[in-house]
Amino acid sequence: MEITQYPLFQVLSTDDQVYVAKSAITKDVEKGNYLVHQGESWPNLFIVEKGQLAAEKDTYDGRTFVAATFKTGDIFWGISFFIENASMPANLKAIEDTRLHLWSKKALEPVIRRNGSFSWELSRLAVERIQFAGEVLETMTFQPIAVRLARLLVGIADSEGKTSIERNLTLDEMAARIGSTREMVCRVLYRFSDEGLIKIPRTDFKIMDQENLMKKAQK
What we know:
Layout: H1 7-10, H2 14-23, E1 25-29, E2 34-36, E3 44-58, E4 64-70, E5 75-77, E6 91-104, H3 105-114, H4 116-142, H5 145-160, E7 164-166, H6 171-178, H7 182-194, E8 198-199, E9 204-207, H8 210-217
Antiparallel strand pairs: 1-6, 2-6, 3-4, 3-5, 3-6, 7-9, 8-9
Helix pairs in contact: 5-8, 6-7
């Protein structure tokens, strides 16, 4: 793999970059399969080369919500990479065919310990994740479901550069993304349709009024 394309590894010496590249384990995870399950100890760090993973958290009442998604170029790690035997707080599930590069704690720990700049970059990434988690929690707690769903639709459309969104996500998956139920998602989708914001053919969601959908997402 070309390690220098990732900013995290650009701070390393040439020798350490070569070592990190050679110690990487490439892993393919098919859509719908799990990289790791909630509750497991998993002392690894990964980079997404292509595809997408979702961090799905099971709740006490049997529901699932998506706490984060990891796309091409994103870096994440199991808690036990830093804290011995700590359990994963969420499942990591491929929501499309995904290729990862993995490093064990044993492989990377010597590099971390002898490179202050590398440690700093990891710390910065950890703070960004904490900040993001706080924003997700605030949204789940205080934002109405209609706002959360509008943000999801706008976000998918923006990432794909389209006004027609393929229905790759089931109602349950959409509900997991916004911390709701499939019944509420279905109800709000049809409310958006009645308001002329979207159309709901069988295979996709067509955004008919992007301006007002974006306004709804910003409330």
